[in-house]
Amino acid sequence: EEDAGSHGLVFVFSAKDGISCGNSLADQAFFDSLSSNTAQTNSAAKSSNQANNASDPWSSWNVGKSGNWDNGNTVDSWATKPESAAGQRNSASNNWETATAFGHPQAYQGPAAADDDDWDDDWDDPKSTSPSYLGYKETEASEAGGVQRGNSRAAAMKLPLNKFPGFAKPGMEQYLLAKQLAKPKEKIPIIIGDYGPMWVYPTSTFDCVVADPKKGSKMYGLKSYIEYQLTCTNTNRSVNHRYKHFDWLYERLLVKFGLAIPIPSLPDKQVTGRFEEEFIKMRMERLQAWMTRMCRHPVVSESEVFQQFLNFRDEKEWKTGKRKAEKDETVGVLIFSTMEPEAPDLDMVEIEQKCDAVGRFTKAMDDGVKELLTVGQEHWKRCTGPLPKEYQKIGKALQSLALVFSTSGYQGESDLNGAITEAGKTYEEIASLVADQPKKDLHFLMETNHEYKGFLGCFPDIIGAHKGAIERVKESDKLVATSKITPQDKQNMVKRVSTMAYALQAEMNHFHSNRIYDYNSVIRLYLEQQAQFYETEYKELVALPSSKRCQWGFRGIFCG
Predict the structure, then answer these.
(1) DSSP letter string over 114-179?
(2) Contact yes or no for 420/173 (Cβ under 8 A)
(3) Cα(540)–Cα(535) distance, integer angstroms
(4) Residue 270 — pLDDT band, cuts 50, 70, 90?
(5) Angle at 63 between CA 62 and CA 67, to 5 degrees
């Protein structure tokens, strides 16, 4: 295998083995610990209601639907930008402001095929499909967010024999009850800003440009793939990566940060037609959006694994960096051991309240995003199907009527017949405008919602981890009373749960900042494009020759 050298001894298991695994035993332990509702999902297939819950990432815990995030600063003007290094909020002079926030221009709009072939590479197995408003059908994997996407990769995955030492004792207790946490090399400070706990944003920010897709092959041309060029805006150096390399990066980030930071899934998998120009363009633009999201995150973008992905110099350095990342011990719950809040420990009541507030808001937003996606999908279908056909029917009917009138032989109606004919042609032109319009406005609104649906699908596991830690602390009094842990152990548990709470609040402040900026941008674009569309439609009507418009002796629709 191409990457056997970076994994050691490699076995390949098929679905018949009944073994579900990720890229390593440690990965699987991580995914298992993240998805607390895996067993429930397996049994849910026995009834339709439970099956519906299994496809919903929020079904693993019960949160009210109508919660509100308690933040009076969420209403802002169109000009609001995400927080950044300058005062942790001002972004006027850096790339946080100019990063693409809401879409992938001219992304492929056509339907996808549905059967698979495995000539791409050994890691590009099927996963979640594209949003159905683009002609695709949603699956459970895409509903469940990034973690369930990882769990679904059981068909034919390589199983390295190395495991992360950090998973030798899986579970939250590994972090909460450790006598002394190992001091990691990397530290993630959390400061207190105007809006509460915040990540520290880098002084110089960057984006990554994904471009220049090229087809490559191996095994004497039997196996083909597409390679993309990635160029960092801060170094102007380029590296090349295949889709499976992005997939590797996604799983590394998920394993490392997945309990603290939502890591959305990669752009959707195409099963056939992967070398068609339109699909390559669509995938590249969605990879661009995913990379921009990662570059905008102050913790992810500065992490060693992400930097190595963008800045390796040759094949040897790439494989060395891969091996190092796969042996990283600071993964899962241990990521919290790298975080250092510059604030006093929080009270347990306050910790639980803030955790519940995040749960209520993210659940409510998830419901809202899904509702808008459903409505938008229906509107997309209407605009690209029945509605243009109705305009075409009106246009053809008008032209047919004019043709009938022209057979009367009456000399004084030529202008009227000409006006009706022009009106019919105009309605046919409007049909084309209506069919093309969703690509100019609704597309970007749907893309933004689909991205946030991916983010929100990660929160049930994040909230679940925090709730699990809170429950452990609640149980600690009994453990102290039975001398199973010492009072100092309990104090350490409270301190570490407080660190987790600060991390959650810092991540939510980052999330809210980007949410406000993204939705300000995309809704403004949507409204501007809609206004331009109706203005164009009006101009199409009033552009009829004046002699034909006014033949009827009144200033009706054709004269505005």
Answers:
(1) ------S-TT----PPPPGGGT----HHHHTHHHHHHHT--SEEEEES---GGGSS-STHHHHS-S
(2) no
(3) 9
(4) low
(5) 170
Scan for tokens 């060029």, then name that residue: 229
CB 547 within 8 A of CB 416: no
Please give the residue that has the higher pLDDT: either 28 or 421.
Answer: 421
Q: Amino acid identity, residue 524?
A: R
* Gap between the Cα atoms of 372 and 514, Å rounded: 19
Annotated binding-site positions? 242, 244, 283
Q: What is the identity of the amino acid at 456? A: L
User: How far apart are alpha carbons 122 and 126 in whole angstroms?
Assistant: 11
The pLDDT tens digits of the residues spanning 139-180 come to 333 343 333 344 433 333 333 323 333 333 347 888 898 877
User: E strands of 486-537, at which residues?
Assistant: none
Whether residue 149 contacts residue 267, with contact meaning beta carbons closer than 8 Å, is answered with no
Residue 196 forms beta bridges with which residues?
193
> What is the DSSP secondary structure assignment for residue 351, as one 8-state letter?
H
Measured from the Cβ of residue 432, the count of other Cβ atoms closer than 10 Å reads 12
426-453 pLDDT per residue, tens: 999 999 999 999 999 999 999 999 999 9
The per-residue DSSP string of 264-314 comes to PPPSPPPSS-TTSHHHHHHHHHHHHHHHHHHHH-TTTTTSHHHHHHHH--S
DSSP-derived pairing of the beta strands 238-242 and 156-160: unpaired
Mean predicted lDDT score pLDDT of the chain: 73
Report the alpha-carbon distance of residue 416 to residue 558 in Å, rounded. Answer: 13
Residue 302: closest CA among 351, 261, 354, 344:
261
Q: What is the pLDDT of residues 335-393, one digit of tens each?
A: 999 999 999 999 999 999 999 999 999 999 999 999 999 999 999 999 999 999 999 99
Q: Which amino acid is at 443?
A: H
Asked if 392 contacts 525 with a C-beta cutoff of 8 angstroms, the reply is no
Count of alpha carbons within 13 angstroms of residue 321, beta-carbon side: 20
